[in-house]
Amino acid sequence: MSGHSKWATIKHKKGAADKARGKLFAKIARQLEVAAREGGADSASNASLRTVIQKAKAAQMTNDAIDRAVKRGAGLSDGGNYESITYEGYAPGGVAMLVDTLTDNRNRTGGEIRNIFSKHGGAMAEPGAVGWQFSRQGLVLVEGSADEDSVLMAALDAGADDVSRDGSSWRISSEPSRVWDVKAALEEAGFTVSSAESTKVSSTTIEVTDPEIARKILKVMEALEDNDDVQDVFANFDIAEEIMESVS
To answer: Cβ contacts of residue 103 below 8 Å, gap of 6+?
Structure first.
């Protein structure tokens, strides 16, 4: 189980404050700009842009805001010039982390990421030190009270690869490009989707049973995700839901 996926679920349950929603919209807008700049403004022929647009709509970003960001990226209006950089590091407990950023100043962003790791008891790692164990995957979590066979049928019909139990939820995995189709199909079938994302999942996990270590890991996650240049944070921790709930 991806630590990032479970952390996203906890945040979803807690709800998003206006400030957090505004920061999320700003990050998605930056992703839209980059996708449009690299592949054009036509989502029908630009799969990356299409995926980000689906993500934006799932976050309830308005069509006008989406269109403005796409136009900036396509050069139809003034926009930023962002570079994609992934940083690698370790949180307390030896937990591996990948940090995806979009930045217009790599020196500033690199220094800020390094400071966050250092301040919270972690450390930056050399490129490739932890990245090898992560691969991109679509993940959807459905309320666990749903009937397994019904979830399985709806998910597989929509193109999902697997359905498994994850604590109190059903965990549905798919190709990254299919995650929003799977989410839509499950919701149309009447299931409650608690989270859906195209994420990076580690092939290895570290089970965290010490609440204090868990708290330190989540503080690193929170500080990284609060940085304006950070788009996503992925980690390989596995924290039991009861510990996650108590410390987050």
So the answer is: 82, 83, 85, 109, 229
**Domain spans of the chain, in order of start:** 3-73, 83-132+204-238, 134-202
Distance CA(54)–CA(176), nearest Å, equals: 12
The topology (CATH level 3) of 3-73 is Arc Repressor Mutant, subunit A (1.10.10)
Considering only CA atoms, which of 123, 121, 125 is closest in space to residue 219? 121
Tell me the CATH number for domain 134-202.
Answer: 3.30.70.980
Amino acid at 226: D
Q: Are 216 and 5 in contact (CB under 8 A)?
A: no
Instruction: Decide: residue 107, CB within 10 A, 0-12 exposed, 13-18 middle, 19+ buried.
Output: exposed
Q: pLDDT tens digit string along 87-120?
A: 999 999 999 999 999 998 999 999 999 999 999 9
C-alpha 114/C-alpha 89 separation (Å) is: 9
The reported pTM is 0.76
